Amino acid sequence: MNILSIQSWVAYGHVGNASAMFPMQRLGHEVWGVHTVQFSNHTGYGAWRGEVFGAGLIRELVGGLEDRNVLPRCDGVLSGYMGSAETGDAILDAVGRVKAANSQAHYCCDPVIGDVGRGVFVRAGLPEFIRERAVPAADLITPNQFELDYLSGRTTTTLAEALAACDVVHATGPRVILVTSLHTEDTPADSIDLMASGPDGRFRVRTPKLGISVNGAGDAIAALFFVHWKSTHSTAEALSKAASSAYGLLARTAAAGSQEILTVAAQDEFVTPSRLFTPEKL
């Protein structure tokens, strides 16, 4: 497939497109990367250098792809951290151009807003833009638990509440929802759940909790889930494959004691995960 991925880029390490593009390429897909920023490293280090690109550049680059008449061959658009509502507008414009050229294309939005324990960490106005504009335009979304709560206006402490929150968000537009880093009352303390909800059912995968916190893992799992769903149109299969690969990637990273996810060194996990997790139908 051909995937247009519009996200940030770092010279060192793996977040944004530097985390999302290679897993998709390793699985055999062409990825057309449009970068929203070019930084030396991710902002989690506390210091970085580089530049945030204007929304006009995104429109210009997508316009160049349109000039080459390749948008009819684009199978999907993936977006992550947007940075600003203006960038979000440019991304939605790109989605509109791609879907006008190929009615079978899909849009996967990773609605980066915040996280449990940290709260909202994007600039003012962006959460509302994502909830009111980006999510309704998306076919698939990949929120974490904090973002699911924000998008649905609910609190999810139980599995039933998480499923109900998905129903609320489905009603706004997205057909498929992957909830990452889900911890409900019935999740064991040494585990973490991932839940996916789609037209073909709701499914959960439970993996051991790894004692690491690294940037970029969410970007990788969103990309993996998107291309696996596009390839199979099976919510369960996409969840199983994405969760298994992400777990393998993070397990290798934890074993190495690395501050950065080992996207390249652990690349075999994208193709043949060392441990396959079977989805549980809910």
Overall radius of gyration: 17 Å
- Strand order within the widest beta sheet: 3-2-1-4-5-8-9-10-11-12
What's the number of helices? Answer: 9
Structural class by SSE content: alpha/beta
- Describe the largest sheet: 10 strands, mixed
Strand content: 15-25%
What is the terminal separation in angstroms? Answer: 30 Å
> H/E order of the elements?
EHEEHEHEEEHEHHEEEHHHE
Tell me roughly what share of residues is in helical segments. Answer: 40-55%
Principal-axis shape equals globular
Q: Indicate the low-confidence ranges by residue numbers.
A: none
Average pLDDT figure: 96
What is the strand tally?
A: 12
Walk me through the structure:
The strands form 2 sheets. This protein has a 10-stranded mixed β-sheet, with helices on both faces. Strands 6-7 form a two-stranded antiparallel sheet. It starts with a strand and ends with a strand. With 282 residues, it is an alpha/beta fold. It has helices at residues 17-26, 55-67, 85-101, 126-137, 145-152, 159-170, 217-232, 235-256, 268-271; strands at 2-10, 30-39, 50-52, 76-79, 106-109, 114-115, 119-120, 140-141, 176-182, 191-198, 201-208, 280-281. It is 40% helix and 22% strand.
